[in-house]
């Protein structure tokens, strides 16, 4: 059988199973036949069932998730409570950072420029990476850095990089890049954990500069497609002491996959202040505790006194998230949330599931807006115009409870103001969702929303 070739690359999935077909024609796999031929269980059958049940329970306990329930409203403003906010999310704030936003396609120019400026190391972590113009652009920059003698470490999620063909990966390795996949399907050690995906998007240069946000390495982020204009996204270029914490986030995933540890000054250099912005990083998911990313979002919403602005592509809050947002609205906070329209999303099933909670949010005073032109992919939370969170996390259970994510929290009124201005400008291309809209929905649509919400933790 010939495997299709595109631009010289095999289009077979990178993580395809290496097993051939096993045919056993002598066995009747008819389910009716099997059921009718099951007789009374003997002692061994009972023991095996008990063992299987215990194993299933143990796996469920290993991958089970604690949810965050926070309904209070602290008396202090969020920008005066960074020690408590960061400490509650397993970190601490650092002073003296500089934050600059990059939007849409300019992100890729920034990535190329940053990698070309590297002198010692390049650490790149991403979720979605496909062959194409964008993939080639990033790969060429990484390979050029490796050929200059730099230490280039690349980590991609095994599921999200399945469309990056084997030859593209081989080219990176041949150039000297160290490449690893997070949670490959066929590795036995990943059994029971394969549902945990690495959704982070991080670039760290020489341990001194970091780029964090929502951009993926596919052509939909670089240029217009046949159905939708190029996706909208925002990332942050960060310098200053907080970059060491972002580097730690990269190595948390790298060490899990490779077992390597690093203590050299080239990886963790002494960082001097580059600006005036206090910042902190949430990325840990301690066993038996809610993830720090989820806690950060809930606490930030609780701290809000005046206004909350959220832009998120996959807005699928659980009941505790809905309660947190409604509580904020009912204590007088202006809560506005922007998501892609059904006609603009790349995941209509997630969008359907998210709409199941719209009625409760609208009744509670939350305002919802649907961005019409294309996929709105930025993951932004702004509180009172003085603090913002930016990173890879969606506002859903998969990001909050299952995936590896990162959110950088920053107390910077100037940049927070930029994000609020972007929100206001995007409103011009939005349609506000009203309670009347939800009332007019057909029974079929309501049932479909409810059915899709049953799978909200897995989207």
What's the layout of helices and strands?
Elements: E1 5-6, E2 9-10, H1 31-36, H2 43-63, H3 82-87, E3 94-103, H4 106-117, E4 121-126, H5 133-147, E5 151-157, H6 166-174, E6 178-182, E7 202-205, E8 209-213, E9 234-239, H7 243-258, E10 277-282, H8 292-303, E11 307-311, H9 319-330, E12 334-340, H10 348-355, H11 358-363, E13 367-371, E14 380-383, E15 387-391, H12 397-402, E16 407-411, H13 413-427, E17 430-433, H14 435-440, H15 443-453
Parallel strand pairs: 4-5, 5-6, 11-12, 12-13
Antiparallel strand pairs: 1-2, 3-9, 3-10, 4-7, 7-8, 8-9, 10-16, 11-14, 13-17, 14-15, 15-16
Helix pairs in contact: 4-5, 5-6, 10-15
Describe the global form.
globular
Binned, the helix content reads 25-40%
By CATH reckoning, the class of the largest domain would read Alpha Beta
Number of helices: 15
- C-alpha end-to-end distance: 34 Å
Summarize the biggest pleated sheet. Answer: 15 strands, mixed
| The CATH architecture of the largest domain | 2-Layer Sandwich
Estimate the strand proportion: 15-25%
The CATH homologous superfamily of the largest domain corresponds to Endonuclease Chain A
Strand order of the largest sheet: 6-5-4-7-8-9-3-10-16-15-14-11-12-13-17
Please indicate the count of domains.
Answer: 2
Oligomer: single chain
Number of strands: 17
Q: What's the Cα radius of gyration?
A: 24 Å
What structural class do the secondary elements suggest? alpha+beta
Describe the structure.
With 459 residues, this protein is α+β, with helices and mostly antiparallel strands. It has 2 domains: 31-63; 78-453, Endonuclease Chain A (Endonuclease, Chain A, 2-Layer Sandwich), CATH 3.30.870. The protein contains 15 helices and 17 strands. The chain has helices spanning 31-36, 43-63, 82-87, 106-117, 133-147, 166-174, 243-258, 292-303, 319-330, 348-355, 358-363, 397-402, 413-427, 435-440, 443-453; strands at residues 5-6, 9-10, 94-103, 121-126, 151-157, 178-182, 202-205, 209-213, 234-239, 277-282, 307-311, 334-340, 367-371, 380-383, 387-391, 407-411, 430-433. The strands form 2 sheets. Strands 6-5-4-7-8-9-3-10-16-15-14-11-12-13-17 form a 15-stranded mixed sheet, with helices on both faces. Strands 1-2 form a two-stranded antiparallel sheet. It is globular.
């Amino acid at each position: 059988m010939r495997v299709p070739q595109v631009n010289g690359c095999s289009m077979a999935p990178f993580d395809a199973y290496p097993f051939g077909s096993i045919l056993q024609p002598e066995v009747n796999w008819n389910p009716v036949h099997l059921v009718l031929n099951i007789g009374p269980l003997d002692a061994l059958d009972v023991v095996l069932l008990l063992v299987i049940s215990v194993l299933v329970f143990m796996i469920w306990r290993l991958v089970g998730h604690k949810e965050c329930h926070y309904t209070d409203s602290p008396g202090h403003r969020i920008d005066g409570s960074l020690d408590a906010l960061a400490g509650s999310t397993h970190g601490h704030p650092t002073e003296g950072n500089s934050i600059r936003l990059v939007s849409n396609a300019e992100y890729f120019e920034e990535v190329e420029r940053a990698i070309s400026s590297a002198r010692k190391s390049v650490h790149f972590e991403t979720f979605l990476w496909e062959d194409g113009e964008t993939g080639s652009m990033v790969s060429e920059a990484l390979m050029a850095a490796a050929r200059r003698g730099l230490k280039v470490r690349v980590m991609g999620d095994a599921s999200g990089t399945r469309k990056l063909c084997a030859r593209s990966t081989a080219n990176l390795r041949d150039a000297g890049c160290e490449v690893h996949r997070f949670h490959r399907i066929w590795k036995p050690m990943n059994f029971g954990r394969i549902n945990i995906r690495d959704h982070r998007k991080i670039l760290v240069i020489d341990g001194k500069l970091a780029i964090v946000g929502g951009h993926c390495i596919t052509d939909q982020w670089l240029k217009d497609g046949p159905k939708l204009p190029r996706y909208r996204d925002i990332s942050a270029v960060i310098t200053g002491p907080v970059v060491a914490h972002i580097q730690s986030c990269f190595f948390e995933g790298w060490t899990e996959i490779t077992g390597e540890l690093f203590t050299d000054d080239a990886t963790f250099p002494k960082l001097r202040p580059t600006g005036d912005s206090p910042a902190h990083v949430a990325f840990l998911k301690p066993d038996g505790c809610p993830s720090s990313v989820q806690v950060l979002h809930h606490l930030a919403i609780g701290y809000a006194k005046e206004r909350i602005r959220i832009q998120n592509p996959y807005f699928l809050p659980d009941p505790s998230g809905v309660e947190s947002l409604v509580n904020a609205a009912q204590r007088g906070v202006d809560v506005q949330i922007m998501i892609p329209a059904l006609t603009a999303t790349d995941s209509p099933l997630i969008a359907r599931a998210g709409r199941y909670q719209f009625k409760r949010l609208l009744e509670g005073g939350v305002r919802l807006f649907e961005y019409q032109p294309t996929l709105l992919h930025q993951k932004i939370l702004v509180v009172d115009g003085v603090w913002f969170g930016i990173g890879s996390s969606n506002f859903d259970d998969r990001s909050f409870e299952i995936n590896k994510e990162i959110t950088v929290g920053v107390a910077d009124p100037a940049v927070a103001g930029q994000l609020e201005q972007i929100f206001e400008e995007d409103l011009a291309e939005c349609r506000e969702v009203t309670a009347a809209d939800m009332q007019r929905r057909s029974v079929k649509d309501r049932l479909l929303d409810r059915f899709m919400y049953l799978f909200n933790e897995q989207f």
